[in-house]
Specification:
By secondary structure, the protein is mainly α. Helices cover 54% and strands 3% of the residues.
Length: 243
């Protein structure tokens, strides 16, 4: 799994632990100084005794250890926090007091018990594809018991795919290939919804194009992952747009 930028974790001693989410996008083998030497964002990471840390190797090691314990990261409610806690326990092992270490371990156990339940996945699934179907009905203008659907409601119909369908499908923590597909679709649909109205004003046509983009992204990502044995690289969704 890959995680994008967020704040680091700071111990009571003021030592900032390695934030593997922030460094997940670094090239394989790239080193980052640890300790009190500031990195590019002005923060310092690690315990400062072992020199540069290979974040990709550390992330892979932590992920494998968590997986061996029978807790797949893709079913955890907050996998990023689990990775941060594991990395902190490893890199600050000598500087943590026994009380701090036990507190971190207790928090880690609690986080590993917070998993995505199947019923919640199904709720997101119904919400996702249900909103797409409702959007199609609104975009077509054939809403039951509403003889004259306002243009604004029809426009909202094709935007529902971007506003509700993709976020709901991503919230259920899908497989890597599906997450890549949804990332591509997220960017492709917003471009289509901005550019296509210059050529056609029909909301149902735009909804159809958006659904076609979803299908193409799903097919491409699935086929690419089947050939490579893993998910293809996809755009990273950051900031306010990240779910």
């Amino acid at each position: 799994m890959a995680f994008v930028a967020s704040g680091g974790v700071v111990s009571r001693r003021g030592v900032r632990a390695v934030n593997i989410r922030r460094n997940a996008g670094k090239a394989d083998g790239e080193k980052v100084n640890v300790g009190k030497t500031p990195v590019q964002d002005g923060s310092s990471v690690g315990d400062g005794r072992d020199g540069p840390v290979d974040f990709n190797a550390l992330r892979a090691k932590v992920e494998q250890r968590v997986k061996d314990e029978g807790v797949p990261l893709d079913v955890l409610m907050n996998p990023a926090k689990v990775l941060d806690l594991e990395a902190r326990l490893e890199l600050e092992a000598d500087s943590l007091t026994e009380e701090e270490r036990e507190k971190l371990k207790a928090t880690l156990i609690k986080e590993k018990r917070m998993v995505m339940q199947d019923w919640l996945r199904n709720v997101f699934l119904v919400q996702g594809w249900g909103s797409a179907a409702i959007g199609g009905i609104m975009a077509s203008g054939h809403v039951p018991f509403v003889p004259d659907v306002p243009l604004g409601a029809r426009v909202l119909g094709f935007w529902l795919i971007w506003l509700f369908t993709i976020p709901a499908l991503r919230a259920r923590k899908p497989a890597k290939w599906e997450k890549s597909a949804l990332n591509f679709a997220f960017l492709g649909i917003i471009l289509a919804n901005v550019i296509t109205p210059f050529f056609t004003k029909e909301p149902l046509t735009l909804w159809t194009i958006d659904m076609a983009i979803m299908g193409i992204c799903y097919g491409y990502s699935y086929n690419a992952s089947s050939k490579d044995g893993d998910a293809i690289a996809s755009p990273k969704i950051k900031g306010a747009l990240r779910w």
